[in-house]
Amino acid sequence: MSTIDYDTPRQAAVEEDSLEELQTRRTTAQSAAADLDGPDPSDVLDLPGADLSDEELTVAVVPMQADEFRCSSCFLVHHRSQLARQRNGEPICTECS
């Protein structure tokens, strides 16, 4: 079994490139970048059934009932059974408590 001395410094393989080589490498890497002037992907991609322009959204709003409260922390309407405590006279639900 061979022993390896991990405390010895590593010999890094250093490539010395000229300034011109580095500049040509940089310009070729930039020219291979993605074309940002192309079409917008959302214009090209059509999802089936995604045309909702003729749909109308109607929601029936029901007022808060007598056995419900609005939590002063999360502002959701809960049933009175979810009331944990009151802080400064304002109700707090069990999830926020």
From TrEMBL:
Residues 1-49 are annotated as: Disordered. Residues 25-34 have a biased composition (Low complexity). InterPro entries: DUF4193 (IPR025242). This is DUF4193 domain-containing protein. The lineage of its organism: Bacteria, Bacillati, Actinomycetota, Actinomycetes, Micromonosporales.
